[in-house]
Design a protein that fits this description.
Radius of gyration: 21 Å
CATH architecture of the largest domain: Alpha-Beta Complex
Shape: globular
Number of strands: 27
Bound molecules: calcium ion
Distance between the termini: 55 Å
CATH class of the largest domain: Alpha Beta
CATH superfamily of the largest domain: Fumarylacetoacetase-like, C-terminal domain
Largest sheet: 8 strands, mixed
Strand content: 25-35%
Structural class: alpha+beta
Number of domains: 2
């Protein structure tokens, strides 16, 4: 697969995140105007809502893009997804006969504000990265018992809060919570002192399902992917999580990148999961390459200071694919809906600079990081900006996601007196 050329000149740069090969879906506004659905192409956004209203895009008798989220398209399923991508590719390709109709529908990206690209139906988060589970398990239970006994058989997860999912750029308020370290006799209610990131990918369910689906069906149902930062209060988590798992530690916020990168754009980057350490039961077995080769990185910038890259890894380090996670999620009969968001779990690679959380990078605070500014960090301090980036590299082109960024604000002086 090579670069597909567009008449939008900025889209033809090998390092630009939004070439014609990508065509990611977002929601934008200009100067507080009505929010519209849009497609990123180079430095521009094609206003899909207006394109449909003017008949330039016409997929259905009923409008699909008159609401400021992509769910109406997502629920249509793969045939309509492909029809839209084909139409957009035709309209924006070099030599398009409809360039004159499309040019007035382009808006410069730097004049827009980006919003949540879809309405999150429900949010589930997994714990399916092998190196992350090994690292965290080693810190808490020692290397012999690092992996829970179920870990190599099912992608374990918990039901999170759709209400807490926010788009990149949203400030994150440091949470208060009940904390108790092992050396304290009683818990105390305080602002979290061990506030952290989790570098993840989010898979978005397009086609709904009722009852169990296969891994192949699950892959077919996935609409696209975003970068996802599952903000995590480690000290709240350590006290609350037994025996039902994370609750308030993960409920402050989860940030996602503003553009949905479709499965179609990622098709050339499919790759296999790592070798199975024990065979999976038949219903979860791999049936094709369902992970993706996507380079990921995390930067941290103290307030008013330049950023330091603190981690680099790749989505292919996951042990379970999103398709396996979605198939597992459905085994009980759990209905899955358009707009369900599945967090992959923290993505860490085998070496120290590849760890996708500060908990791992600073080894529980025992080995603080030194930033390029000379400052050290074990966990996030007030004013720090954390940014996730992702890019799949093709021959002469890049599939980017747009940054997933957030700045941590100081905790309120008292959460009950604001
Ligand atoms: Ca997580």
């Amino acid at each position: 697969m090579t670069l597909s050329k567009s008449w939008v000149a900025s889209a033809n740069d090998a390092n630009h995140p939004f070439p014609l090969n990508n065509l990611p879906y977002g929601v934008f506004s200009v100067d507080g105007s009505e929010q519209h659905c849009g497609v990123a192409i180079g430095d521009m956004i094609l206003d899909v809502t207006t394109a449909e209203a003017e008949g330039v895009i016409n997929l259905d008798d009923e409008p699909l893009f008159d609401l400021p989220f992509w769910n109406p398209l997502m629920e249509q399923g793969p045939a309509v997804w492909a029809a839209l991508r084909a139409r957009l590719t035709y309209l924006l390709a070099e030599g398009s006969e409809e360039q004159d109709k499309v040019e007035p529908l382009l808006v410069p990206q730097n004049a827009t504000e980006l919003h949540m690209p879809f309405a999150v139906s429900e949010y589930t988060d997994f714990y399916a990265g092998r190196h992350h589970a090994q690292n965290v398990g080693t810190m808490f239970r020692g290397p012999e018992n690092a992996l829970p006994p179920n870990w190599l058989h099912i992608p374990i997860g918990y039901n999170g809060r759709a209400s807490s999912v926010v788009v990149s750029g949203t400030d994150i308020r440091r949470p208060w919570g009940q904390l108790k370290s092992p050396d304290q006799e009683k818990p105390a209610f305080l602002p979290s002192r061990r506030f952290d990131i989790e570098l993840e990918m989010g898979a978005i369910v397009g086609t709904p399902s009722e009852g169990p689906i296969t891994v192949q069906e699950a892959d077919d149902h996935i609409f696209g992917y975003v970068l996802l930062n599952d903000w995590s209060a480690r000290d709240i988590q350590a006290w609350e999580y037994q025996p039902l798992g994370p609750f308030q530690a993960k409920a402050t916020a989860t940030s996602i990148s503003p553009w949905i990168v479709t499965k179609a754009a990622l098709e050339p980057f499919r790759c296999d999961t790592p070798a199975r350490e024990v065979p999976l039961l038949d219903h979860l077995k791999d049936c094709g390459p369902m992970l993706y080769d996507i380079d990921l990185s995390v930067t941290m910038a103290p307030e008013g200071k330049p950023a330091t890259t603190i981690a680099r890894t790749n989505y292919k380090e996951m042990y379970y694919s999103a398709a396996q996670q979605l198939a597992h999620h459905s085994t009980s009969g759990c209905p899955m809906n358009t707009g369900d968001l599945l967090g992959s779990g923290t993505i860490s690679g085998p070496t120290k600079p590849e760890r996708g959380s500060l908990l791992e990078l600073s080894w529980g605070g025992k080995e603080p990081l030194t930033l390029n500014t000379g400052e050290t960090r074990s966990f996030i301090e007030d004013g720090d900006t954390l940014t996730l980036t992702g890019a799949a590299k093709g021959k002469g082109y890049t599939i980017g996601f747009g940054d997933c960024t957030g700045t941590v604000l100081p905790a309120h002086s008292s959460p009950y007196a604001r």
